[in-house]
């Protein structure tokens, strides 16, 4: 270690983790990376010691101090009480951006899409992954999809900064805002607002279903894709698969003060200890880490040596497909032997520092005027809708009036269709024609419902923001 070495936290992981991590550290060091690795315990052994997060207090301390985590895959034990390390680290340390490059290395790694070279940037903290789920009734469970303006803003800004720093030309945002107008609509709207600060980057939007189909069919057409958490999760796996190289795919999780770099694959216990595991995914993640800590020249040098190894036909058994397979250690030596060389056919890598922190130069959005204009009362009811409506009408008290009942989002009162299939979960909307109502009136309504023996599960207040409804209107309104 020399004086300028940057401390990083390293976890060897489980299964093939220790062998591929040691191989990668060997290559990074030979390639001129200036790193001071601090080894921490992680994974199976730590869970067995009773740390439900899979990480020891010393591990957390190191990680919070270095702010850079180079992590080999870990085996997630089956069974209750065990939390996924990735989810815990991501959430605890605010790693809001998942960056997944997916490139083809044709003809040296077989793929149907030789020109593919895209990066997926996935929002990592919000959306359906907040993990807030409830069972409401016999029939119905719910998962809350939370999307925030600051969350959208920092991922959108990170995506634009990333694209600019990497010389990328276009960002395609993918959402389902034709259906989820408020949540996905906000994600798209903020993408377009932030995009105004980046006129040098081309920008477009696709509905996620057609976007995912296009990624599967014609990934060459994409440059950077930005997506909310769930869609980003799915589309990253599609892209890695069609690149022909799930085993080669790296991943970075970036936060304001901390970042984590790892391979996309798991701990592969079936091949552990056999010297056949491919270190490439973890190595490419290590190169993202070097770019992140400002050592882009070393990253490019190592990347080029790795590309030369591919061109020379070197590969672990999973990559070989018709070529001579070598063991993981021999592959590692082969990469080191080629340091200083440039690839002849594959595109050479360049030093390109990545943005390290979310850059926000937007002033906070001006406060909007919020007014409460009604309430949706959710009721567990196993009878017919007309009887329910009559019992709810009996609860009316000025200014609140029963306006609508829906079942799984379909209007069933007034003027529902007998064909609509109903479950035991009813959304009953009370409003005052769009005028403000006091919160006390909502509380009083729930009291009357309880006194009338109606089993309400929850209420959702209906609010307007600067006069615009902040709630879906429901069918028939
Ligand atoms: P896996 O990715 O470990 O293995 C899937 C297949 O790919 C196996 O046949 C394996 O031999 C092969 N493979 C994986 N990595 C390889 C490599 N570097 N070189 C050659 N072949 C490789 O997925 P899995 O079997 O579903 O999961 C095993 C364990 O890993 C589970 O406990 C899972 O929870 C965990 N996991 C961890 C992470 C992580 O730490 N980020 C990610 C995914 C899975």
Describe the overall structure:
- The protein is built from 14 helices and 18 strands.
- By secondary structure, the protein is α/β, with parallel strands linked by helices.
- The chain folds into 3 domains: 1-94 and 246-349, Isopropylmalate Dehydrogenase (3-Layer(aba) Sandwich); 112-243, 3-Layer(aba) Sandwich (Isopropylmalate Dehydrogenase); 370-469, Alpha-Beta Plaits (2-Layer Sandwich).
- A 10-stranded mixed sheet has the order 2-1-3-12-11-4-5-10-8-9, sandwiched between helices.
- A hairpin with a 2-residue loop joins strand 14 and strand 15.
- Helix 1 (17-30) runs parallel beside helix 12 and helix 7 runs parallel beside helix 8 (229-242).
- The protein is elongated, with a radius of gyration of 26 Å.
- The termini are far apart.
- The structure holds nicotinamide-adenine-dinucleotide.
- Residues 16, 20, 73-76, 86, 247, 262, 265-268, 270-271, 277-278, 318 line the site of nicotinamide-adenine-dinucleotide (NAD).
Query: Do you know the CATH architecture of the largest domain?
Result: 3-Layer(aba) Sandwich
Instruction: Indicate the percent of residues in helices.
Output: 25-40%
CATH topology of the largest domain, by name, is Isopropylmalate Dehydrogenase
Radius of gyration: 26 Å
Largest sheet report:
10 strands, mixed
Please give the domain count: 3
Distance between the termini: 68 Å
Bound molecules: nicotinamide-adenine-dinucleotide
Total number of strands: 18
């Amino acid at each position: 270690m020399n004086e300028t070495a940057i401390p990083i936290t390293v976890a060897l992981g489980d299964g093939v983790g220790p062998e591929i991590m040691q191989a990668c550290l060997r290559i990074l060091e030979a390639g001129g990376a200036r790193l001071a690795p601090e080894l921490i315990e992680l994974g199976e052994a730590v869970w067995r010691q009773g740390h439900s997060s899979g990480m020891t207090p010393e591990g957390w301390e190191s990680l919070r101090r270095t702010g850079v985590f180079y992590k080999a895959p870990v085996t997630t034990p089956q069974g209750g009480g065990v939390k996924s390390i990735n989810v815990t680290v991501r959430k605890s340390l605010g790693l809001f951006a998942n960056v997944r490059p997916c490139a083809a290395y044709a003809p040296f790694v077989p793929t149907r899409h030789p020109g593919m070279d895209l990066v997926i940037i996935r929002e990592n903290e919000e959306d359906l992954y907040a993990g807030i789920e409830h069972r409401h009734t016999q029939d119905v469970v719910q998962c809350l999809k939370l999307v925030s303006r600051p969350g959208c803003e920092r991922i959108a800004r990170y995506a634009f900064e990333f694209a600019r720093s990497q010389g990328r030309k276009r960002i395609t945002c993918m959402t389902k805002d034709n259906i989820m107008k408020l949540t996905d609509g906000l994600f798209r709207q903020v993408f377009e607002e932030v995009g105004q600060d980046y006129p040098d980057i081309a920008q477009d939007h696709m509905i996620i279903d057609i976007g995912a189909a296009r990624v599967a069919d014609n990934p060459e057409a994409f440059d950077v894709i930005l997506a909310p958490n769930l869609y980003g999760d799915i589309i990253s796996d599609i892209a890695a698969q069609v690149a022909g190289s799930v085993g080669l795919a790296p991943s970075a999780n970036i936060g304001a003060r901390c970042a984590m770099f790892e391979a996309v694959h798991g701990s592969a216990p079936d091949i552990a200890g056999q010297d056949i595991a491919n270190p490439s995914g973890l190595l490419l993640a290590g190169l993202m880490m070097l770019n992140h800590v400002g050592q882009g020249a070393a990253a490019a040098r190592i990347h080029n040596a790795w590309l030369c190894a591919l061109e020379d036909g070197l590969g672990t058994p999973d990559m070989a497909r018709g070529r001579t397979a070598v063991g993981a250690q021999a592959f590692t030596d082969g990469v080191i032997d080629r340091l200083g060389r440039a690839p002849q056919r594959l595109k050479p890598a360049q030093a390109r520092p990545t943005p390290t922190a979310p850059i926000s130069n937007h002033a906070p959005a001006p406060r909007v005027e919020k007014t409460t204009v009604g309430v949706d009362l959710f009721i567990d009811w196993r009878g017919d809708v007309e009887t329910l409506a009559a019992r709810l009408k009996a609860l009316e008290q000025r200014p609140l009036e029963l306006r609508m009942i829906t079942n799984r989002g379909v209007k069933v009162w007034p003027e529902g269709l007998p064909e609509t299939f109903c479950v035991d979960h009813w959304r009953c909307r009370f409003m005052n024609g769009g005028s403000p109502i006091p919160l006390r009136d909502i509380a009083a309504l729930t009291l009357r419902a309880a006194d009338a023996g109606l089993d309400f599960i929850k209420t959702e207040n209906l609010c307007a923001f600067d006069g615009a409804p902040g709630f879906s209107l429901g069918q028939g309104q």
